[in-house]
Amino acid sequence: MSRRIQPAKNITGGLRLPGDKSISHRYALLGAIADGETTIRNYAPGADCASTLHCLGKLGVAVSRSQVDTETGEPAEELAIEGRGLRGLQQPEGMLDAGNSGSTMRMLSGLLAGHQFRSAITGDDSLQRRPMKRIMEPLTQMGARVTARDGSFPPLQIEGTALRGIEHRPPVASAQVKSAVLLAGLLAEGETRISEPVQTRDHTEIALAQFGAEVVRGPRTTTVRGGVALRAQKLAVPGDISSAAFFLCAALLFPSSDLYLQDVGLNPSRTALLDFLCGMGAQVKVLNLGENCGELIGDIHVTGGPLQGGRIEGEMVAALIDEIPVLAVLGAQTEEGLVLRNAQELRLKESDRLATVAENLRRMGAQVQMQPDGFDIPGRQRLAGAELDSFGDHRIAMAFTVAALAAKGESLLNNDAAAVVSFPGFFEQMEKVAER
Ligand code: S3P
After folding, report:
1. I need a labelling partner for 71 at 20 to 30 A (CA). Which of 184, 232, 276, 436 fits?
2. CATH entry, 21-236, from 3.30.450.20, 3.40.630.30, 3.40.190.10, 3.65.10.10
3. Mapping DSSP to helix (H, G, I), strand (E, B) and coil, where does residue 288 land?
4. Each residue of 63-120: pLDDT tens digit?
5. CATH 3.65.10.10 is right for the domain spanning 2-18+239-435
């Protein structure tokens, strides 16, 4: 399906965003192996988090939904997950399907490795092209047998076993790999320690502590003790800052924008976006800072104004990994542009995001100089309305909707439905705040 997008004058109003995708996956997975019923409010509505629930259902986990009254008087949907206890998942019938979700496949594999049955997990065409060796190696070291097409690609066949704890130093910075190992560690004998090359999002570590796991954290190192029963929790998921990014960047493209986002997750391992925007001169304020289930949460107020441009490299890449496509769109319209380096990981996402960002920007008449590990996007480029494509990647669909709002003339976005992977109501929400 395609969607026509008209340019906007500014982005103004107030919004509440759907629940954080990363946190939702983790709450569901931990709830599934805890003792008792875990409830989750504001669970991410996208297809990715539905894939996690679907797989858990096939593993014998009962999941139900109900409407509940909240303190604010607004009804909310609450998910209830009937925990099966440590090592309590059931052997699934047939292949598990993670859809488009790398998080589901990688993190669930950590749990499957510690269950003494055979299982297989696959995904859509995009997921079948994504590397899994990075989780296969540590899980094999822990004692599981994991095989894959060509040694790295889904479907994965997992023969779970009684795992033993390991020390692992992943060569790539990946929160999914870290989480797969920590989840397997919960089911292993002894301690499992993971030391990351660069700090990545720490929602798993926070959720583990919340569920009563024995977890010890040091700088870039986390140790978990296996065999400790988890306690069911009452949880609420904050708004997704990676979804907020599309609205913040859209607002920053217009001098007269004034946007207020409520209840956004502000975990410091995810807020490099706000620092980066402020570093370019953006007017971004955080208000009503609080804490919920160990995660920081607050409101964000942004107003439009000129931006200088910036450079993303080194440790910043992992911290901004999901925001880079929309920052590239913004970068083209800053004073000095955007330089990106050390971002080879972007080629291994739902699409090759270095290539798909460059392709769409060029279709809009912008200049982009490609590098093997990034790109240079000169500033002060006025984008022209064009025929764009999501290339089946949700973040590309949303980033180029933002680009189209600031373009001269109408754009056509092909394969716009990709946005449902993380944000089913994205286009409607954007329409609410885009003034024309
Ligand atoms: C995620 C980690 C990141 C990120 C993805 C979600 C997570 O992936 O890009 O959208 O929830 O742990 P990698 O671990 O592959 O960097």
Report:
1. 232
2. 3.65.10.10
3. strand
4. 999 999 887 778 889 999 999 999 999 999 999 999 999 999 999 999 999 999 999 9
5. yes
